[in-house]
Amino acid sequence: MDLLEQAAGVWARRWIVLAVAVVAAVGVFAWRSTAPEHYTASATVQVRVPVTDDSDPTPQVSYYATQVSGRAATPGVVEAALGLLGRDDDSDAVRDAAEEITTDAGDEPGFVVISASGESGEEAAVLADAVAQVLGDQVRTDQADDVAEKRSAITDSIAAVAEERRRTAATNDIFAVGALDREREALLGALRTLADTNPWRLALVEPADVPESPDAPRPLRDALLAFLVFLVLTAEGVVLVRAFRGSLSARDAAADVTRATGLAATVVPASAGATAVAPLLPAIGEARDVVVVGVGAGAEGRSAGLLADLLAARGDLVVLHDVSDGSSATAGDDERVVLAAEVATVDDLLPLASALSGPVVLEVDQRTSRRAIQSEVTTMRALDLDVVAVALRESVRSPGRESRGSDDAAGVDERREATAGATA
Q1: Cα 401 from Cα 98, distance rounded (Å)
Q2: Of 164, 129, 148, 154, whose CA–CA distance to 199 is shortest?
Q3: Inter-axis angle of helices 14-33 and 3-12, nearest 10
Q4: pLDDT tens for residues 290-323?
Q5: How many of the other CB atoms lie within 10 Å of CB of 270?
Q6: How far is Cα 394 from Cα 368, in angstroms, rounded to an integer?
Q7: CATH for 127
Q8: What total of structural domains would you count in the chain?
Q9: Measured CA distances, 293 to 111, 303, 354, 360, 379 (Å)
């Protein structure tokens, strides 16, 4: 099944597809319209490091920004932010708040966007600012602790070198004493360098603004998305159902039947004229008796009546007779007889088969599956019926279906009466 065939099948069921998509969209709109509002606010922080002429700070600030981004939603940071705001900071509150916090390092090195969500715009904004403040405080605390730890290590080393020099000086080893003096000077230089070092820090460059409108729910957006999703899913469902059922081609059902059965076939629209059955004439030939077997509800002698009209328009003398009740038709030698048999299933033809002679046209609903048509043709041939063609009647889905069928039936009855009068 190619794409054009699938598209034609979906187009044939377009009202079903649209109806399902519309119902889904309306349902999602109603659902999302009652959902609680959700606001999101964002604060931006920047990693700042000492700038030197001989180095590129980009890799360093990118590394620190990644570290900050990873710490924003950690329990320690969230708990401190909630405490700063005076909110509950138990484990459940911390977990719920952490789920509302996201970060984005962005494309510009050193900048981190901290986003927080809440039931109001103010709640979201103050939470984002609190997280940014806690991160900045923790960075300063970590830097101070790191400097203090290094200073303590250096001063301990200086004290150890001084003690070692005192013991060495007692031995009058001037070379060892000189080495220890140089080591002490190096340690003092490291201590002075540490005092002059400017650590990196985190600055709040753009506090969070209180959002004026919620970012969720968005009923219209969600409804449109649901419409598109269900439109696609329903269309795919139609394609799958048609493939599973073995439905006839939506582009050329008659050609599909011909390929499946090897018989001539034509589609008979609901409002068609007699010319709709013209493609069946080569299969019928000049046979005196022609049988049209309508299978299923809705047959109502439509194809038989059209065939009789077409033969009459060519100048033939035609007798149209309904043999569904087992009756037989009488006609003159120069008259052609169109026998119409309407049955629920082809199995119902068993009592009538002996009275049916000549080429047989099978009339079925266009929605009948390919497999069902093949089965019906096989069954009719098993009854020694000479099936030569298939007429596919178009289904009537409009409110006027019953009236149309009644008109067709009335037309057949009128032709019967006219035929009876002529033969009498």
Answers
A1: 62
A2: 148
A3: 70
A4: 999 999 877 677 888 999 999 999 888 888 888 8
A5: 17
A6: 11
A7: 3.30.1890
A8: 3
A9: 80, 9, 14, 7, 13
User: For 171-219, how does the pLDDT look when each residue is reduced to its tens digit (9 = 90+)?
Assistant: 888 888 889 889 889 988 888 888 777 788 899 999 999 998 888 888 9
Q: Are residues 26 and 43 in the same domain?
A: no
**Are both 183 and 52 inside the same structural domain?**
yes
Q: Are 202 and 143 in contact (CB under 8 A)?
A: no
Confirm if 322 and 342 have CB atoms less than 8 A apart.
Answer: yes
CB 342 within 8 A of CB 298: no
Query: CB–CB of 234/22 below 8 Å?
Result: no
Cβ atoms of 77 and 69 closer than 8 Å = no
Number of neighbours of residue 36 by Cβ within 10 angstroms: 8
Q: DSSP letters of 322-384?
A: E-TTS------TTEEEEEEEEESSGGGGTTTGGG--SEEEEEEETTS-HHHHHHHHHHHHHTT
Claim to verify: residue 190 and residue 273 sit in the same structural domain = no
Residues of the chain by 3-state class (helix, strand, coil), percent to 5: 55, 15, 25
Judge if 361 and 238 occupy the same domain: no
- Alpha carbon distance 132, 207 (integer Å): 9
- 100: tokens are 């509302």
* Cβ neighbours, 10 Å, residue 229: 14
Residues 393 and 268 sit within 8 Å (Cβ to Cβ): yes
Q: Determine the structural domain holding residue 296 and report its residue range.
A: 253-423
Q: Which pLDDT score, from 0 to 100, does residue 417 have?
A: 40
- Written as six digits, the tokens of 396 are 């009537």
**SS3 of residue 147 by DSSP:** helix
Q: Global pTM? A: 0.56
Which pLDDT does position 53 carry in this prediction? 57
Q: How far apart are CA 398 and CA 419, in angstroms?
A: 32
Task: Spell out the residues 6+ positions from residue 403 whose beta carbon is closer than 8 angstroms to its own.
Answer: none
Helix residue ranges, H only, 13-114:
14-33, 58-71, 75-85, 91-99
Q: Name the residue with tokens 């038709």.
A: 329
How many other C-beta atoms are found inside a 10 Å radius of the C-beta of residue 353? 14
**Cβ contact 422:312 at 8 Å:** no
Gyration radius of the chain's alpha carbons: 45
